[in-house]
UniProtKB/TrEMBL annotation:
Highest taxon of the lineage: Bacteria
Database matches in InterPro entries: YopX-like_C, YopX_protein
Protein name: YopX protein domain-containing protein
Domain YopX protein as annotated: residue spans: 50-148
Pfam families hit by this protein: YopX
Length: 151
C-alpha cells in the first residue's frame, strides 16, 4: 500500500527549523497532514505510542497554499512529484495547437481533482504521460513565475 505523504512550507525560517532539529529539504517539510479549524500542520511520525498515550516526533504549522500530496510518481531524475509541482513532459500523442500529430513539450501544474492527479488535462498515470520523460521544473509556491508562463 502506498503511503500518503505530504509536504508544506513551514511558517518559520530554515534557521528556526535547524534550531528545532526538524529535518527539511530547502525549507520544505514532509510527513502527514493534519488540518484543524484554523491551520494546516505537517507532522512527523509517532515518538511514543502506548495504550493511553501517543506523542508525535514533531509538528509544524505550514502555509495552507503550499501543501501538496505525493502523487506516487517520480520524475526522470527520481524526484518525488507532488501536487503543486510544475512539470514538463513531451506529449507524443497529439499536439493541441495546430491539430496535428507530433511531439509537443507541455509545461503544467500538477493538480488533484476527480480523485486523480492531472497536468494540463493529462492523467499522470495514463500512457499519455511517460514518467521517464516527466521533469519537475519548479513548484507554484517557490516559482510562481512559471505558472504565469504557462497560463
Amino acid at each position: 500500500m502506498e503511503e500518503f505523504k505530504f509536504r508544506g512550507k513551514p511558517m518559520m525560517t530554515e534557521r528556526e527549523l535547524h534550531e528545532l532539529n526538524i529535518k527539511h529539504e530547502n525549507g520544505w517539510v514532509y510527513g502527514n497532514l493534519v488540518i484543524s479549524d484554523y491551520a494546516y500542520f505537517i507532522t512527523g511520525g509517532f515518538a511514543v505510542v502506548n495504550d493511553e498515550y501517543a506523542s508525535l516526533e514533531w509538528w509544524i504549522r505550514v502555509d495552507k497554499e503550499s501543501v501538496g500530496q505525493y502523487t506516487g510518481l517520480k520524475d526522470k531524475s527520481d524526484r518525488a512529484i507532488f501536487g503543486g509541482d510544475i512539470i514538463e513532459f513531451n506529449d507524443q500523442s497529439y499536439a493541441r495547437t495546430g491539430g496535428h500529430m507530433g511531439d509537443q513539450i507541455i509545461k503544467a501544474e500538477v493538480v488533484y481533482e476527480k480523485a486523480a492527479f492531472w497536468a494540463d488535462g493529462y492523467l499522470l498515470i495514463d500512457a499519455e504521460c511517460n514518467d521517464e520523460e516527466l521533469e519537475i521544473i519548479g513548484n507554484k509556491f517557490d516559482n510562481p513565475e512559471l505558472l504565469e508562463a504557462i497560463e
